[in-house]
Amino acid sequence: MITFKNQLALVVYFTLFGIFLAATYDILHYYLRRWKVKAALGYVIQSIYWLGMVFVACLYAFRVSEGLISIYTFFFFFAGGLIYRALLRFGLHSDLERFSRGARKAYGFIKKWLSELVYSRELALLFLKVKSTIKKKLLKIKRRKKSESK
């Protein structure tokens, strides 16, 4: 028998998990639109997302409620999603924009740092010299073949 206190705790847990589901779906949908993913690929990605989330939701509900998954579990998931849509969604897109800008800056910094670490300036100059030498030799061979064919 589940006590009222435990049921109230389950309601809070399931509602928070519903908010989590709605927020993660909103983030997924935001990035699919931002990256201009084709419709068919978007449906495949969303299907994979929902299959994974159904699995995670069932595991979560099973563990939190100690094996007693009732019908109101999914009702409170839905209620949490509605609460997210009604109250919490508005600031998410601006936060995602700021996060994306910060991630791009961090990626640029790390990429620059790693490229300087992996490829020294001398090595880059050597690659450029080798590239230009090969290009000159190929042009020379191409001219020679062109002059021979005339």
Write structural notes for this entry.
- The structure is a single chain.
- The chain is mostly helical.
- It has two domains: 4-107, no CATH class; 119-150.
- The protein contains five helices and no strands.
- It has helices spanning 4-34, 39-64, 71-88, 92-118, 121-149.
- Helix 1 runs antiparallel to helix 2 and helix 1 (4-34) packs across helix 3.
- The radius of gyration is 28 Å and the shape is elongated.
- The chain starts with a helix and ends with a helix.
- The model has no long low-confidence stretch (mean pLDDT 87).
Secondary structure topology:
Blueprint (H helix, E strand, L loop, with lengths): L3 H31 L4 H26 L6 H18 L3 H27 L2 H29 L1
Helix pairs in contact: 1-2, 1-3
Considering the chains and any ligands shown, give keywords for the structure.
150 residues, mainly alpha, 5 helices
Major sheet attributes: none
Any low-confidence stretches, pLDDT <50, length ≥5?
Answer: none
Name the beta content range: under 5%
Q: What's the overall geometry?
A: elongated
Average pLDDT level:
87
Quaternary state of the chains:
single chain
Q: What structural category characterises the helix and strand content?
A: mainly alpha
First-residue to last-residue Cα separation = 97 Å
Cα-based radius of gyration, to the nearest Å: 28 Å
Count of helix runs: 5
Approximately how much helix is present in the residues?
A: over 70%
Extended strand count:
0
**Helix-strand topology string:** HHHHH
- Our count of domains comes out at 2
